[in-house]
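Researcher: Sequence recovery benchmark, item below. Answer with residues only.
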């Protein structure tokens, strides 16, 4: 575990206990209660459907309709909904109480501990409605709300909440996704030696920093529309001695020249965008990539690759967790999205990848050489072993 930094408030004993409880509750609902719901599907709901219809349920919505009236689904949904609200309720009071201290510590860290990175905010940037019109995954105030001058509250809450939300499954530095995705590229494509890397929709940069580690000679940029998370992320990067250029910018209108990056990366970003903005971001990624450069997105796997039950299970968030674009994104053909942005089908890549943080590099390397598989461990937090999903494309050298 990393040493505590001035960006982390000290919880009271009750607050620490509440945080630990909610983390355990999240783990319980996503493992034990989820397993009970699956058992009901396998032993009762699906056989009943098959007896009536003469076939198995065909897709996620059909499974959803079948499971909705069951006690197991209702219990799972009730506990999971409450646990989601409790994630934020378990960290906000601690941040609120110490906000003045965190804000000034963050300012000091940005100004006095600079390690070669930077922070550029754009107060005139219009924050898009996918952020402002909904408390995304029920985070009060979404990503963008500010409560003081130079405020980092949204970042401080996100940084603490992610630990509770993921019940430790993102690793001690909350960066397993970035570690996995950056090291996959480093090991799989050793000839790619990026000089400039861009992370879009970076939030506080949890998954940006592993790119600095994987490619120490690269200049790493990270953009987001929300100012508080960027201020926090910039200060946090300095506490870890990693240089990142954070900028407040919309990924659908990148303020970078054509052909100026070797890698454009995103994680857990596209499912929070309306389809037109997914297309806008991908087109911008194509534009700012150099020929031979790589677009690489960590995301939820597409519904077309998953079984009906897994599609239903993963799409729960779209119906019950204030993630209005989640299912719409997962219903897309990712290859078509990338092709429409300008990449060729031959340059498309995708992979399901075990978690880098939780294994040796030799085991990771051996695992990524095996053919990819999609199953209930793909894209889902599972203490027994998640596989993250990534897709993207190289930009053709003739483009
Ligand atoms: C789920 S978070 C991404 C998490 C982050 N990439 C990580 O791996 O920790 C989505 C982020 O996208 C940002 N965002 C939403 N729409 C955006 C847009 N059009 N351009 C840039 N950032 C955007 C939000 O402010 C939020 O910080």
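Model:
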């Amino acid at each position: 575990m990393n040493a505590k930094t001035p960006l982390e408030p000290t919880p009271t004993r009750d607050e620490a206990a509440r945080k630990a409880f909610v983390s355990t509750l999240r783990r319980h609902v996503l493992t034990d209660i989820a397993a009970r719901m699956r058992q009901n599907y396998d032993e009762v709901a699906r056989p009943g459907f098959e007896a009536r219809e003469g076939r198995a349920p065909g897709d996620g919505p059909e499974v959803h309709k079948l499971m909705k009236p069951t006690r197991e689904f209702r219990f799972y949904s009730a506990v999971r909904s409450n646990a989601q609200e409790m994630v934020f309720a378990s960290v906000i009071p601690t941040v609120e109480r110490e906000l003045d201290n965190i804000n000034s510590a963050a300012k000091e860290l940005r100004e006095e501990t600079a390690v070669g990175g930077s922070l550029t905010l754009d107060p005139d940037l219009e924050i898009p409605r996918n952020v402002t019109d909904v408390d995304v995954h029920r985070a009060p105030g979404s990503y963008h709300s500010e409560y003081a001058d130079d405020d980092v509250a949204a970042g401080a809450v996100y940084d603490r909440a992610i630990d509770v939300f993921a019940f430790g499954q993102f690793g001690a530095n909350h960066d397993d996704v970035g570690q996995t995705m950056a090291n996959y590229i480093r090991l799989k494509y050793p000839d790619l030696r990026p000089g400039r890397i861009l992370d879009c929709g970076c939030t506080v940069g949890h998954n940006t920093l592993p790119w600095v580690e994987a490619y120490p000679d690269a200049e790493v940029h990270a953009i987001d529309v929300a100012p508080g998370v960027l201020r926090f992320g910039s200060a946090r990067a300095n506490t870890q001695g990693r240089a990142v250029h954070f900028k407040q910018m919309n990924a659908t209108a990148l303020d970078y020249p054509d052909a100026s990056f070797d890698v454009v990366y995103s994680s857990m970003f596209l499912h929070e965008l309306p389809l037109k903005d997914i297309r806008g971001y991908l087109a911008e990624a194509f534009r700012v990539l150099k020929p031979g450069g790589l677009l690489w997105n960590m995301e939820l796997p597409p519904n077309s690759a998953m079984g009906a039950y897994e599609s239903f299970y993963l799409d729960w968030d779209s119906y019950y967790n204030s993630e209005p674009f989640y299912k719409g994104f997962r219903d897309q053909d990712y290859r078509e999205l990338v092709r429409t942005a300008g990449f060729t089908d031959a340059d498309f890549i995708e992979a399901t990848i075990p978690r880098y943080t939780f294994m040796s590099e030799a085991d990771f390397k051996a695992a990524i050489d095996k053919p990819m598989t999609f199953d209930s461990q793909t894209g889902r937090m599972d203490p027994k072993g998640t596989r993250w999903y990534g897709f993207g494309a190289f930009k053709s050298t003739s483009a």
